[in-house]
Amino acid sequence: MIEQQAQESPAAAGRPSPGALPHGRREWIDFVFRFQSLFGLLAVFIAAIAFSPVRNGELLFLTTENLANVVRSVSEIGIIAVGMTFVILVAGIDLSVGAVVGLAASGVAVLMMERDMGVAPAVAIVLAIGLAFGAVQGLISTRLGIQSFIVTLAGLQVARGLARIWSDGQGVPLAYGDGPDLAPEAFSVLNERLLGGLLPVPALIFLTVGAIAIFVLRRTTFARHVYAIGGNERAARLSGVPVARVKVAVFAIAGMLAALAGIIHAGQLNQGSPNDGAGYELDAIAAVVIGGTSLMGGRGTVAGTLAGALLLGILNNVLALNNVDANVQLLIKGLVIVAAAALLSLRGRDD
Amino acid sequence: MAERPPLLRMRGIAKSFGGVHALRGVDFELRHGEVHALLGENGAGKSTLINVLSGVLTDHDGAIEIEGEEASFHRPADAQAAGVATIHQELDLVPEMPVAENLFLGREPRTRLGLLDRRRMLRDARELLARTGVELDPARRLRSLRVGEQQLVEIAKALSLDARIIVMDEPTSALADAEVEQLFRVIRDLRTQNIGVIYVSHRLEEVAAIADRATVLRDGQLAGTVELAASSRAELIRMMVGQPLDELFPKAAAKPDGELLEVDRLSVLPRRPKPGRSEPREVSLRVRRGEIVGLAGLMGSGRTELLETLYGAGAPGRRSGSVRLDGRELELGSPRAALAAGIGFVPEDRKELGLVLGQSVTTNVTIAALHRFARAGLVNRSRERGAVVQAIADLHIKAPGRLAAVRTLSGGNQQKVVFAKQLLTRPRLLLLDEPTRGVDVGAKAEIYRLLASLAEEGMGILLASSELPELLGVCDRIVVMRAGAVALELDAAEATQAALLEAATASAREAEAPA
Where in chain B is the domain with CATH 3.40.50.300? Predict the structure, then answer.
């Protein structure tokens, strides 16, 4: 049947370009599914406006102050989720990212406070540690043929242990200034806002990371390899895709972005603790899943992940604005994750 | 008493999907004890007709009568209850469970305490297998059986469910010749039990050997039903494609010249030997530029393993002997290295090994040659688009669009995508493993023409195939493999099916003896 249609129109024509708006009911349904997370984000955004408390005739949710806060609050999870997206696209998972946040947060604090390092070397070393940590997990997984779930579950313990050893199990508070036992003033930039208070620095870093990742996943050969491995690893290997190398790179990226999140965490709290980031891996996975990326690999986008992270942030924000009990917040978050997964499975069945 | 009604009568079956007619007024009749072949190119409507009969598609026009009684199926279970069993290409069995448990899945015999009655299950299973004419230990795990044996298990299961009509969808597509013989024995036995068999296949030789009548579909319509005893292969092909296909195999104009591939005493000692695999043993062979060399042999004779080894995708282990391409020694380390050296490979299982089904025609076609469309790691999409448009035109790939998922293409067009991907890497040597399996006659002819023109351009081709007429029609030379080793090498002009078969099977017996 397809063949007959194709004979009438030139084989190369066909489906409208991704940018074009759809027409027809069927295509609208496809369209909504394809950008499910963006529509979800829009819906939650509208709901947040509707449920926003009002003070002095102003919607609290819509104040620039609050919106900036939303983006800032999701920047750490968002950055981790971007790395997680790469991992999940190759049908892997990285459970170690939360522990790497703790390792990086305490590590950067120790380096600046106790080793007298400047911001640049401390940050560079911590990012390199995150990168290497991820790469080693990738190597173990590919070389020994162990599922990434297991390897990173072990990595989670190792990273947490390393963090505690490094910081003597203590949180390291950051005090700024010149001289020994003080962190350079420059590090406190992570607590600042640009553009007249509109743009918190962590949010800027988050959005930059997201933009770079979107570009990488749309335009590079690396991305094609990532999607091919997730879609059919054996076929990818037979097509000359360097499967092991790409997987190692993907885990390295996830590790480095987790370390970046850890550095931001330390900057925002003015302290690095080895226990930081506990459970972040699950929030990041939630953002990726809500963003429409398939845990089976091969399917998903960073734009979806960004939307997923923002959606969770708005949800938390509006619930907090309404003084909803934190435990109820957890319930609602759970429902949203299930709803997103249900939509995804509906779309899968549609194929 | 009136004449006994036929086992099955389908009248005026019509079905359309979103305005496209998949079937238009098709009549079909199956007699008791008849093997009735259902023929047609991909997309001709065979699967739709089968799905109507097996209750998968319920919203159709036309009537179905079984033994003269009107039947209407609302779900597959209804068809099953009416005695229709369908054996799909992908078998509906559980690989990790023993044969017996597969046979009685969901209706396991129980003891009085409600526990599984294992002993009775094994006994019943043994009896059932014997009745089907299959010699198998019902305690074996299904996974350990060959595909052909698994199929027989499925037939036995159908019989135990009192099936009167058994539909077999491409039953031999994964079988070697010896297994096909075994299957045919079982089918002939079914015939004596008055069971009707609908046999869907692309292989006309087989159809002629096993079926009594054939019904041919073309473009969703009935092209005709014929007695096979009274009709020729050419006639069937004409009915299928609607035009005479006088030359399925083009005459090769290529003049082989100069050694391209030189394999000398290549052996592989796998680190972890796997049952059912025959790694290369002391294999020596040559492929010249512009030459098409065939690899014949039974299933498990080591053809696939040899191709995989040459492509750097074989079993890990110790290798000895040498492989040279254009005089340069090859490492055989990875598919990536093989592609870089100028070797392309079209694997046998295109869905598992050849394609990323969920992704687009474009990404599938260019994945192996991406570096040609990229600079500094960035894909130049307009150059990529140009190459894909060209490939679609060159290979006559029929697809809804460049961005359509490969999953939506027919088998023949999927195979062309795999070819396009490999050809885009500009190989000097092309390794092909069953490239026309599950592909309709029209696409087959196109693939043969493509091979001939590639050879004419000086490409060397090593073609493994289970279809002897294909090897005889396409190749310059044929190498017969047995148990991983070369059993015989012949000029295609001197070769006959009998000689090839003799060499392939004699070897199988010898190989089994010492082990």
Answer: 8-241, 259-342+427-512
